[in-house]
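Here is the promised in-class demo. Please do not try to memorize the tokens; focus on the logic of going from shape to residues.
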């Protein structure tokens, strides 16, 4: 049985490190990034999406093959293009611009799903973006959740709210409905604030636990993370790093958490590991290139003051 499979949209990235510099080609797409991160960290990871019958789709297929991510079930759509996005940087952070309308991934429907592959995988990973790109993609994600739950597999979901993709009211309705059926919730703090109206990480964790998740990890970027179950919580301090680009940090966290969780079954150890991995992913430009290997993460955790630092476990 495979460890992980994710469903979503993969894109080719064009990243400009500074004003006036040439754009450098890379790759992105939140769930694709997460599976590449997981594969680099030792998980048996698979990915499902659709790409265009174009050079960009071919480049993504070659990327997954190179990274050891099983993409053997993807759809190649000769009537649609592969999505692109651009990243620019300034003193206030990074900004994204997308060319994804009508992409091959946005045309995926329920009939395209690799049902047997989902049934034979321990954790299905999804995100808000997986559902935001089109109505048919949103329905396909709900169908995939039903398949996984029918097979008694775990479902992981990162809300990853992008207001440019859909209005808040629609996003809240669909994401909350999906999260009611998930086992592992991986919200980012800013996304969760927009979707729940809450800012306190403990309150956000409680919100998603009450929706039905068994495990919630609130990702707080430079603030570290909060891992929670119905009975315990642990605040994880940020890992020191001289960050240059946080483009794929949240996706790296997801992939690292799932890779460690599927191996150990300990959400708190997995969150500490993912926190260190995500920090390392900010040391280079682009979403994929800086994703760390296991040995790098283990060295970083061992070298941090006090090891992987947390405020300790507390009972609820």
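The designed amino acids, position by position:
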């Amino acid at each position: 049985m495979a460890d992980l499979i994710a469903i979503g949209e993969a894109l080719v990235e064009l990243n400009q490190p500074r004003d006036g510099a040439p754009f450098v080609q890379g790759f992105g797409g939140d769930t694709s990034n997460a599976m590449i991160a997981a594969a680099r960290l030792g998980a048996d990871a698979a990915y499902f999406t659709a790409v265009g019958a174009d050079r960009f789709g071919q480049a993504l297929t070659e990327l997954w093959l190179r990274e050891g991510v099983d993409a053997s079930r993807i759809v190649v759509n000769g009537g649609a293009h592969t999505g692109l996005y651009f990243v620019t940087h300034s003193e206030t952070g990074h900004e994204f611009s997308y060319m994804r309308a009508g992409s091959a991934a946005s045309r995926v429907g329920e009939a395209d799903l690799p049902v047997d592959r989902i049934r034979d995988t321990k954790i299905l990973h999804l995100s808000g973006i997986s559902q935001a790109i089109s109505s048919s993609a949103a329905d396909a994600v709900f169908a995939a959740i039903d398949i996984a739950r029918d097979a008694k597999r775990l479902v992981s979901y990162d809300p990853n709210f992008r207001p440019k993709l859909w209005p808040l009211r629609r996003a809240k309705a669909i994401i909350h409905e999906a999260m009611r059926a998930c086992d592992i919730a991986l919200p980012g703090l800013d996304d969760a604030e927009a979707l729940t109206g809450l800012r306190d990480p403990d309150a956000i964790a409680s919100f998603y636990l009450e929706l039905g998740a068994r495990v919630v990890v609130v990702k707080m970027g430079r603030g570290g993370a909060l891992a929670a179950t119905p009975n315990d919580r642990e605040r994880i301090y940020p890992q020191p790093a001289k960050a240059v680009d946080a483009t794929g940090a949240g996706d790296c966290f997801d992939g690292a958490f799932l890779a460690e969780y599927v191996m150990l079954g300990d959400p708190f150890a997995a969150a500490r590991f993912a926190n260190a991995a995500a920090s390392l992913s900010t040391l280079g430009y682009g979403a994929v290139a800086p994703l760390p290997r296991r040995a790098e993460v283990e060295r970083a955790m061992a070298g941090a003051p006090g090891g992987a630092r947390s405020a300790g476990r507390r009972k609820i």
